[in-house]
Amino acid sequence: MLSFLLALAPAVAPNPAEAGRIQFNRDIRPILSDKCFFCHGPDKAQRKADLRLDTREGLLGRSGEPGTVVSEKPAESELFQRIISTDASKRMPPPKAGKDLTESEKATIRKWIEQGAHYEGHWSFQPVAKSGSNDAGAIDTLIGAELVRRGLAPVSEADRRTLLRRLSFDLTGLPPTPQEVDAFINDKDPGAYARQVERLLASPRHGERLAMWWLDLVRYADSVGYHGDQPVSVHPFRQYVVESFNANVPFDRFTREQLAGDLIADGGDRGKIASGYNRLGMMSAEGGVQPKEYLAKYIAERVRNVSGVWMGVTLGCAECHDHKYDPFTAKDFYRMQAFFADINEKGLYGGGKDWGPSIAVPMASQREELAKVDAEIAKLRAVSTKADPMMESAQLAAREAWRILEPRKVASTGGAKLVVRGNGQVVASGKNPATDTHEIEIVAPPGGLAAIRLEVIPADGLPARGPGRAANGNFVLTEIVARKAGDPKAEPLSFSSARATFEQKGALVGNPWGLWTARAAIDKDAKGRNWGWAVMEEAGQANAAEFTLASSVPEGTALRISLEQNHPNAGHTLGSYRLMGSSKPADPLLRPLADDATAILAKVPASRTAEEKAKLLAAIRRDINEGAGTGAELKKLEKRGAEILAGAPTTLVTERVMPRTVRILHRGNWMDDKGEIVTPGIPEVLGGFKARGATPDRLDLANWLVSSENPLTARVTANRIWKMFFGAGLSRSLDDLGSQGDWPSHPALLDHLASRLVESGWDLRALIRGIVMSDAYRRSSVAPRPVRESDPYNRYLARQSRYRVDAEMVRDNALAVSGLLVEQMGGPSVFPFQPPGYWAYLNFPTREWRNDDGSSRYRRGLYVHWQRQYLHPSLAAFDAPSREECTAERSRSNTPLQSLVLLNDPIHVEAARELARHALEAKPNDAARLAWIFRQALQRVPSPDEAKVLAALIDNQRKHFKGLPADAAALVSVGGFKPVPGAETIELAAWTGVARAMLNLHETITRD
Amino acid sequence: MLPETIARRSFLRAGGLSLGSMAFSQLLARDGRAAAAVPRLPFAPKAKRVIWLYMAGGMSHIDTFDNKPKLAQMSGQPMPESVTKGKQIAQLQGAKLNCLGPQHPFKKWGQSGQEISVIWPKLAEACADRMCIVRSLSTEAINHDPAHTFMNTGSMIPGRPAMGSWLLYGLGSESDNLPGFIVLVSTGKFGQRQPIAARQWHSGFLPGQHQGVELRGTGDPVLYVRNPAGVDMSAQRQVVDAVGDLNRLRDRAVDDPEISTRLSQYELAFRMQTSVPGLMDLSDEPKSMLDLYGTRGGDGSFGSNCLLARRLAERGVRFIQLYHRDWDHHGAVKDHVAGTAGEVDQGAAALVTDLARRGMLDDTLVVFGSEFGRTPMAQGSGRDHHLAGFTMWFAGGGMRPGFSFGATDEFGYNAVENKVSVHDVHATMLHQLGIDHERFTYRFQGLDMRLTGVEPSRVVKEILA
């Protein structure tokens, strides 16, 4: 037993203290992180003796101040003296912490100090080293050098059958057919292997394979996760992922689309579907949920996810306290949250059916139908652009009634710079105060002033072109007050009504009006001073609000109009607008015309040129046609289009709303309202950050993630892709490249892959191609004992790795080798057989899984309905995660439940029956049939010993079922098959037994 | 068949490769050693196994184990604002908060004089002197799902291992033919049947073999445990034997310890196929035993599950968790709490009594409690969820018998005396199983994760015998 335990210590790592130069990051930091950082690390609340060992200053001192380490002098270095002290009161770490350093660790630290105690910042936060070469052999050069250094000899290339089986599983998640293996074996061309690589990379199955990986990370599931775990429709997102991988969409674009597809200028429906990423987190419909608590949960999970998926760091640890090991502060955590504060969502989705913003994603047939409807609508519209002189003159008259109110004086109480441009347009610039009031002095126009119109106008230079100055182009006019100018004590005039061409519907939490309505701007703040007129969904467009005075003001009266902008969400101020006045209550309500048309309108009609008149008429005609629609026919068509869309599948999307205020929550307590307000930003330690506008948003975050300033994303992604082809990352910790993570076995190789990934324009396929073309990838996984013993975890890749395939592939493999697999892509999730009653403890509502009876039950595991609380048990048994959180690495267990699934799950029995049936059809005798089944399952011929075991099995099964014809019929009837009674059925049952054995082999579910 | 020793040899030879495999911890446990990962306490553990009677839905502490005379006096009157101000409230948000006294009388029971509501006649009569009642629990979540997750895994964030998985990982299984962590669920007919997620018995970031396995009341008792239609045990044996022989041949060719593990898992699976039906078949229990538990078995009732729990304990299962999901009494709490207690009373009493008679209570830690309590304020005729104070009790496993510990304030609102957190409960349970909770860790996302989290928690020594 002793030798067994000793074998646990990996023999391969040479003791760095004996092996040349110590590197701080490789050799020292992991020791300090593990043993010291908890009390002497980044968390200031835990820090003891005000000593940090995670910074250069903490270790080596500041200028003029000695540190705890004295270069070249272990005897004078307190750090070293403390760790080797035999005095329990002096020794560090304190004996009770149970974190004593090993002798080898102590020796390593001593040697590091002797060598000069050179410090390095944490490796993964350093810029990615530029790849030395673009040469295809770089991977093997770097691996080869390390093998030489460690005295390991690489094993030879795997045989072609193994190679193709490995490549097929890795690139498509499916096994090769025996015919594909034969073709490869017989292809004597030197480019044979490369051709197989290209064939598999081009297969639509490749995108499905990569999607299995990605959906774990972004926690894709078909149910909401909390409490009732109700179903939610997001499958178009899954299809977006599959299609993106198949089209080899550059990873930077893929990143931008998911985090901010709704903010990308030409994102379209694709961007919207991708933006569903932000909505894939868990949600609750549990009565009694306090929305604020769950909003805090949802947004915190987003930080965990984005930092897990793209940065490979555990920023989530900083929710309640500064990170204990990495230089992340709680403030960093909440600044990351602030990026996601603009997502339209609710804490409580009462009713459990409506999960917030979604769009319809028509299926192909529906798209065709829609296209027809759209074509007919376009035809009708073309006809309807004809002029309607009656309406035109009516609208012209209505517009002529509004006169521009030229401001005589403008002032901002908050300190913004207000400038009056042509046509009465007021433009704000300079400081954008948190709240503001614009004081505008105007004079009542000829005929008196009965109504005031505020036109808000988009303008270049404003965020999102305005018309407001908030990051998303919005503003909130909380109150409009009019009083006689020059008399500060004058009573405000009363308004009798207010209306607007558009009123914001989103971000309504707490809004007593149920709408961001213009009426809230004339209520003298009766319902609170926070509420007013806003236009978020139509930011970037012109709109107008009209306020009718209770009684008309005589011509020539000077008035001071106060435009109050008191919304507590800082900076929601007006950016560009004009005031207009009318001598009579206005009707109808019209949108602002374009600037040039407004300028023409401002002229006395008699002074307008013919060209100007035509231009004005065109503008008005356009407005009429856009506004009015065209008759019953058009309405009918539009209704039909809407019906098609209503019947189409939907998917959750991100809808941007006015950002919520984000505060640092003390100890993560969501009830705390006293913390500092934070704005969006990346962790400070990761350096500078350039935003497009004043307030950084999700698109800025995405841009930064894939920018050269961020060293993490490329490393994390390259490391995870590597894992897909070797079974483990170059850094083993796929989910943490922080200081507690695993130092990569080949740092230069990881940086080579990362920098190639960036330099290639984030070309994932090129990265994958480079990896699978390497010699290291092609090696055999069978290695002589000494190689295995000196590198038990295969960190140095003298051989390939051997491991059980992922849950979905276990299923897909059985379906593929038996010929059952249906290679259909996309669409709603499928419901293959699941044991009855498995959902018994779901409620609100109670439900039962309904087994699909069509061909969809033979589709790939990727498409199986993903129920977070009760994942399909055959997938769960093979370690498929619930996807409640980001999963970077599945565990790879080996359990009796897996045996029960392979032995008894009807889908595996049905696959065996099909395999048997095909064998009976394909081959004339026992030996040939055995060999055929064996080849189907494993793409190789059985050894004589193996053939002997199978020959005995077919004899035994035959004998068994001969006496039990009813059993035989029952067995082969699985999946609705109708057996022919008699000898044929007994034979089929016996062969089904053989096929079951084949599908249960360890080798069958192993990629080696 | 090929000699069994091949499997054994190749596993031992390359054991270090297979840290994640079940056989590792099991072999060690079977050899009388703890897995290297487990920081054992320097004394013999008091408990070998846990039976957790989990009252899902939120049992009202005020109507069951925490008598509040002052609250009874004030029943119907407003709850003083000083008690509730700034506190987290679930469905009663914005409602008028009136006191609702205990709905049934309390009595003192046994020699210890433990105060327990009369709605537990059998339990109180038979077990009061064996129970260690802790009335000063509080938790961090006020809704069922996160509160369950916190109670089971020590964190509200999904993805952490359940306590049973931690134990299985640390101590291994003592059963040769059953999983070491088994869950049974019964459903009553009085409360809202709140859902229970499989997350509550998931192994989280621990290797999958430490996952809890549900023993189901209807259908196949374990998923996929039944042979395919038309396949009897002899036909199944033929297939399993051939799989074993072919796997061994492959192992000879490639020399891979994972194959040996796979071999042993097929053997365990096959044994489960016979042991599970044997476990569920109560025909070997005398009538007096069925009467004690008040069940004829096979009905998925709490009483039936209690009897199965004892049978599982006898067979060496490490962690047995019985959910009874009937305690969410938002309305008609008077009738419903009595009704649900009636569903649980006899089974719980019988289990403790039966274990004691067999001498198994000494090394079996019985735990009884909910994910949270219920408000001392009325919600109509019921009570809302409540996190600031509630009750759990323990029996056996070295806990102090006939003892009460901790208290809520006179309204039953806040735990005020000898407060005990959920993490404290976990720390104490681990302690009784011989494990130091502060050093029992697993590396995940670069961190040494613990069941009891990073904030300080303590072993509640006062409640230990």
Which class do the helix and strand fractions of chain A yield? alpha+beta
Overall, the morphology of chain B is globular
- Give the radius of gyration of chain A: 35 Å
Strand coverage percent of chain B: 15-25%
Determine the mean pLDDT of chain A: 91
Number of helices of chain A: 35
CATH architecture of the largest domain in chain B: 3-Layer(aba) Sandwich
CA-to-CA gap between the ends of chain B? 52 Å
End-to-end CA span of chain A: 30 Å
Count of strand segments of chain A: 17
Low-confidence stretches of chain B: 1-36
How many distinct helices of chain B?
13
Gross geometry of chain A: globular
Please estimate the helix content of chain B: 25-40%
User: What is the string of helix and strand elements of chain B?
Assistant: HHEHHEEHEHHEEHHHHEHEEEEEEEEHEE
Could you list the spans of chain A in which at least 5 consecutive residues all have pLDDT below 50?
1-14
